[in-house]
Design brief:
The complex is a heterodimer.
Chain A: H1 12-15, H2 19-37, H3 42-55, H4 70-79, H5 83-95, H6 99-102, H7 108-113, H8 116-127, H9 132-139, H10 146-156, H11 161-173, H12 175-186, H13 189-192, H14 205-222, H15 227-242, H16 246-270, H17 274-277, H18 280-310, H19 329-341, H20 348-375
Helix pairs in contact in A: 2-3, 3-16, 4-16, 5-10, 5-15, 5-16, 8-9, 8-18, 9-10, 10-11, 11-18, 12-18, 12-19, 14-15, 15-16, 15-20, 19-20
Chain B: H1 3-35, H2 40-45
Classes of the chains: A mainly alpha, B mainly alpha.
């Protein structure tokens, strides 16, 4: 009996372990360190880290590419179909409070400026030789919006999906590190010290209720290809603001988004197989992602400087840096930098407005990108 | 159209359309705020 057993199977995991697997397992552990010890995006980095480890255990059948495996099934059902990003957007909409932006709608312009990094990075990625669908998917990292990046790359650059999603979420968590040096470099202390009015402009309940409908319908009519994203975020917000479906709203911003985040994180991690992930392309995506979010900050702050000049010093240019989708990290960074320059300055309310504007703008920019690419026949019409 | 021409076009069109769309949404919000301004009594009545 003893001789009929293939004892090597007991050690098959060890004998099939490659150096790439080991590196990936270490990367999984680093993600745990960043999320647990440093508090960087733990809701996503913990499941991603675990997914990475599971996928890189040889013969476990837990990689997203392992046909018939559990995570392979979830990957196909949730990510490649783009269901997960859309469901997350319903939750984001239910969590979003657009009041600071509705009270000061001109601040939406900062949200637009905060997306310019996407389009400039698209140009640079094309110049570096990436194909158009790949360049578009990489540049969407500049939306600073994980679900949008996943939605885009799962549709147009599936082979780059693991790298793009990890880079997108990692940079979202690095906003407090990436943005401040750029903000300080582009502004003078006098500009950063500007005190903006702290009086909150209140908006009626009717406006709060109508906003997701009006902005949603208008945005979807401009760029119908972005309807799954824009429609989902506006649906979530409408559920919350309607006030009559509290149970649905609670589920959307609670259980639904939590379950989907867990599964999405696991699947993204499980797609990070050593052999496919440790490539020069991943490094290029890392660099282009950093460029994209840096450019978002640059264009936002530059618009802030223009507003400072136009309003003769009434607008603090730092507000421009909050016009991105990384909520509420970007708004907090603006508040902190403003207070460093002037302890009497409270920019949080305005920064929150620009930040929620950035959430709408990032989806709008992605929708516009989809419309341009589809309109030029470069990408197929969504099916 | 070469990739670079596409890059320049999509950069200009993308930034322009995004900016314009958000500018128009901003004006829509401004209009809504004018049509239905905040009134403390009404908000209290509706529990808002």
């Amino acid at each position: 009996m003893w001789s009929s057993i293939d004892w090597s199977m007991l050690f098959a995991g060890f004998t099939n372990l490659t150096w790439q697997n080991i590196v990936m397992i270490v990367i999984g552990l680093v993600l745990f360190y960043l999320s647990i010890a440093k508090g960087a995006e733990p809701l996503l980095l913990v499941p991603i880290g675990f997914g990475v480890i599971l996928a890189n255990i040889p013969l476990s059948g837990m990689a997203a590419a392992d046909e018939g495996g559990i995570l392979n099934l979830i990957y196909h059902a949730g990510i490649l179909t783009q269901i997960f990003p859309v469901l997350i957007f319903i939750g984001i909409g239910a969590m979003a409070d657009f009041r600071p932006m509705l009270g000061n709608p001109f601040i939406l312009i900062f949200g637009a400026a905060g997306q310019f990094g996407i389009f400039i990075t698209l140009f640079i990625a094309l110049a570096m030789g990436f194909k158009i669908p790949e360049a578009a998917s990489i540049s969407i990292i500049g939306a600073m919006d994980g679900p949008t990046a996943i939605y885009f790359s799962s549709r147009y650059a599936r082979e780059l999906l693991p790298a793009i999603s990890v880079v997108a979420y990692s940079y979202m968590s690095l906003v407090p590190i990436v943005q401040p040096p750029i903000m300080r470099l582009l502004t003078t202390k006098k500009e950063r010290a500007v005190v903006m009015s702290t009086s909150k402009t209140r908006v009626s309940k009717r406006v709060v209720l109508l906003f997701p409908l009006v902005a949603g319908i208008f945005g979807m009519l401009i760029a119908p290809m972005g309807a799954p994203l824009l429609g989902a975020i506006m649906l979530g917000n409408f559920l919350k603001e309607s006030g009559v479906v509290e149970r649905l709203s609670n589920v959307a911003e609670g259980a639904l988004v939590d379950i989907v985040t867990l599964l999405l994180g696991l699947c993204v991690g499980a797609a990070m197989l050593g052999g496919n992930f440790l490539t020069t392309t991943t490094i290029l995506i890392l660099l282009l992602g950093l460029l994209a979010i840096s450019l978002d900050t640059v264009t936002g702050v530059m618009l802030g400087k223009l507003m400072y000049w136009v309003t003769r010093g009434k607008v603090n240019p730092l507000i421009g840096a909050a016009g991105v989708s990384a909520f509420p990290m970007a708004a907090r960074v603006v508040q902190r930098e403003g207070q460093k320059a002037n302890p009497r300055s409270f920019l949080l309310w305005h920064a929150m407005g620009a930040n929620t504007g950035g959430q709408v703008a990032s989806v709008m920019a992605a929708a516009v990108m989809l419309a341009i690419l589809t309109g030029m026949g470069i990408m197929p019409l969504p099916v | 159209m070469t990739n670079m021409q596409f890059g320049v076009f999509s950069m200009v069109a993308g930034m322009g359309i995004t900016l314009l769309a958000l500018y128009i949404i901003g004006w829509m919000v401004k209009l809504m705020n004018k049509l239905w301004p905040y009134k403390e009594e009404e908000e209290k009545k509706s529990g808002g």
